[in-house]
């Protein structure tokens, strides 16, 4: 659990982070969104003390993060820096091994972990391990940045726009990979992004920042349904709010009894995908199947439309 | 031009240099026309090879000493504790560079006597500036993002210096060392005016006996050494830079 209590950061006269308080539950993904310069990076960096707050405290599992020396704290917290920041004079494998090496892991364990992480992020260890960062594409570099942050199996992972340089297809894939990693290791992730779509997709909770203030901190559904002010509403983009809302739920949750003809959809797919498929194929309903292929019922346009309406 | 031609030229120069140092008499017919009244065409007051090796030794000792001091100083003034010494060390190092080596020799002889020592002092002082300035540039221009990543990974100040800042500064530092070495190679010749065993001895002997052949062979050996060492260090520098994905700086 991370408790941020009345944290303020000032540089001279300007207040960059203004009295922010929030509690981040363990093993959840919290996404910080906001416009450029709203203080997202600064807030993130106060958690691992790359930036010292002007006032306020941050507690990790109940202990003040100032109770251990800064560099030791940072070895225990994964950090994927904005724009990857890989060491250009070290190979991909050496980059990923940075924190484990600082912690004094033995070589066998380090190598095993590096290979595991590269495979996890869809990079062939034999091909990519010995390369230098400049021999990688921007997207591959970002994935190595994420692998480096995860290397020492941290309980907390801070990520600053980790998927900024990725094309939409790789980006979706990287998001899936991240969620899989998060589930597998139970990591608490705090991720900064500009992209509301990404925030809704990844976040258990979303923190919206504007000019250093925390405007709203709530679940995606709550933020979509009840934006705290006009700024949040603009950020969501009122025009596709219903679709974002649908993207939060699975088809399984919208199943109705009955039958339908034609191509079916899996229960784990999002309701948004189901609606899109129905509209595109000009049908009013389609069958829903479970993982094992058995029929569960059907989804209907009518039913989905009801779910797309603002929750009461 | 094809890439191997300069390489071939340098190789020929190296072979020629070694041949000349080990068997100077082979070249006697070439230098004979430069002498008068049957004077010897090849330096005959000592072995050219051992003079060349002593010359290199003097330069090597002075450069290593300048390197240690200049790099240590650059590290000190780029740490928070030493930041206030930056202007002071800059001026000190600059004085070392602007003070003429001949004057350093003249001042050093009464203090440390004749021989290699005054030459080492002069070369050391003269070689500090390029190494210091370049190391400083290297250490202060490490991309902020990379330094922050190192901090974020939990490196201490020393670990950042040793694992990130210094390695990334290597190409620029090498450029400074190369400059310093080349300056020292040429400057070391004047050490022979205070009895240091360097190739300057050959040139001075030529000047004293009005023997152009001596002057020329002394000068050519120094020049050939300088060219070869300059090129070797440039190649090293490019290798280091390429490894880091930096564009190799023009030599
Ligand atoms: N070291 C510093 N000194 C002075 N001002 C700073 C410093 N670091 C950040 N700021 C200012 O604080 C504000 C917030 O910066 P921050 O990096 O937290 O923004 P951000 O929300 O991450 O923006 P972006 O989305 O562009 O990355 C900016 O106006 C920035 O100029
Ligand atoms: Mg930022």
From TrEMBL, chain A:
- What InterPro entries does the database record attribute to this sequence? AAA+_ATPase (IPR003593), ABC_transporter-like_ATP-bd (IPR003439), ABC_transporter-like_CS (IPR017871), P-loop_NTPase (IPR027417)
Cleavable signal peptide: none
Entry keyword annotation includes RNA-binding: no
Give the record's keywords alphabetically.
ATP-binding, Nucleotide-binding, Transport
- Domain ABC transporter intervals: 2-236
Q: Give GO terms: molecular function aspect only.
A: ATP binding
Q: Which Pfam families match?
A: ABC_tran
SUPFAM superfamilies referenced in this protein's UniProt entry, alphabetically: P-loop containing nucleoside triphosphate hydrolases
Family per record: Belongs to the ABC transporter superfamily.
Protein name per Swiss-Prot or TrEMBL = ABC transporter ATP-binding protein
Query: What is the species of this protein?
Result: Aminobacter carboxidus
From TrEMBL, chain B:
InterPro entries, per the entry: ABC_transp_perm/SBD, MetI-like, MetI-like_sf
- Residues crossing the lipid bilayer are 51-77, 98-115, 121-147, 168-192, 212-233
The Swiss-Prot or TrEMBL record describes its family as follows:
Belongs to the binding-protein-dependent transport system permease family.
Q: What is its main location?
A: membrane
Annotated localization: Cell membrane
Q: How does it sit in the membrane?
A: Multi-pass membrane protein
Keywords, comma-separated and alphabetical: Membrane, Transmembrane, Transmembrane helix, Transport
- Its protein name is ABC transporter permease
The ABC transmembrane type-1 domain covers 52-233
């Amino acid at each position: 659990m991370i408790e941020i209590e009345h944290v303020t950061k000032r540089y001279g006269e300007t207040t960059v982070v203004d009295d922010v308080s929030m509690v981040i539950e363990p093993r959840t993904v919290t996404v910080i969104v906001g416009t450029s310069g709203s203080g997202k990076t600064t807030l993130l960096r106060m958690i691992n003390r790359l930036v010292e707050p002007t006032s306020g405290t941050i507690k990790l599992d109940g202990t003040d993060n100032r109770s251990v020396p800064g560099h030791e704290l940072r070895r225990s917290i994964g950090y994927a820096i904005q724009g990857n920041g890989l060491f250009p004079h070290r190979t991909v494998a050496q980059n990923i091994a940075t924190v484990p090496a600082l912690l004094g892991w033995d070589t066998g364990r380090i190598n095993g972990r590096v290979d595991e992480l590269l495979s996890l992020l869809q990079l062939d260890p034999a091909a990519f391990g010995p390369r230098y960062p400049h021999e990688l594409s921007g997207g591959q570099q970002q994935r190595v940045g994420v692998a480096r942050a995860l290397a020492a199996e941290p309980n907390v992972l801070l990520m600053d726009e980790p998927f900024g340089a990725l094309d939409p297809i790789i980006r979706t894939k990287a998001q899936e990979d991240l969620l899989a990693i998060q589930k597998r290791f139970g990591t608490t992730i705090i991720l900064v992004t500009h992209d509301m779509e990404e925030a809704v997709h990844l976040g258990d909770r979303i923190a919206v920042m504007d000019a250093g203030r925390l405007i709203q901190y709530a679940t995606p559904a709550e933020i979509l349904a009840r934006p705290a002010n006009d700024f949040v509403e603009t950020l969501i983009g009122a025009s596709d709010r219903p679709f974002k809302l649908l993207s939060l739920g699975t088809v399984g949750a919208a199943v109705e009894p009955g039958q339908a003809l034609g191509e079916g959809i899996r229960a784990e797919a999002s309701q948004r995908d189901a609606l899109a498929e129905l509209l595109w194929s000009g049908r009013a309903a389609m069958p829903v199947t479970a993982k094992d292929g058995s029929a569960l019922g059907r989804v209907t346009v009518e039913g989905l439309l009801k779910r797309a309406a603002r929750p009461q | 031009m094809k890439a191997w031609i300069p390489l071939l030229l340098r190789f020929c120069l190296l072979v020629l240099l070694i041949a000349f140092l080990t068997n100077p008499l082979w070249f006697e017919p070439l230098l004979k026309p430069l002498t008068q009244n049957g004077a010897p065409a090849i330096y005959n007051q000592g072995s050219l090879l051992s003079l060349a090796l002593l010359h290199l030794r003097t330069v090597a000792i002075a450069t290593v000493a300048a390197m240690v001091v200049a790099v240590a100083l650059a590290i000190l003034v780029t740490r928070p504790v030493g930041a206030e010494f930056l202007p002071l060390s800059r001026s000190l190092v600059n004085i070392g560079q602007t003070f003429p080596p001949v004057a350093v020799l003249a001042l050093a002889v009464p203090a440390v006597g004749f021989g290699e020592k005054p030459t080492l002092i002069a070369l050391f002082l003269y070689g500090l500036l390029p190494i210091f300035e370049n190391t400083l540039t290297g250490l202060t221009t490490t991309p902020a993002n990379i330094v922050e990543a190192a901090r974020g990974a939990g490196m201490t100040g020393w670990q950042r210096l040793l694992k990130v800042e210094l390695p990334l500064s290597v190409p620029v530092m090498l450029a400074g060392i190369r400059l310093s070495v080349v300056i020292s190679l040429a400057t070391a010749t004047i050490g022979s005016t205070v009895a240091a065993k360097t190739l300057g001895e050959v040139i001075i002997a030529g000047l004293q006996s009005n023997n152009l052949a001596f002057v020329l062979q002394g000068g050519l050996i120094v020049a050939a050494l300088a060219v070869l060492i300059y090129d070797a260090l440039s190649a090293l520098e490019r290798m280091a830079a390429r490894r880091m994905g930096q564009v190799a700086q023009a030599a």
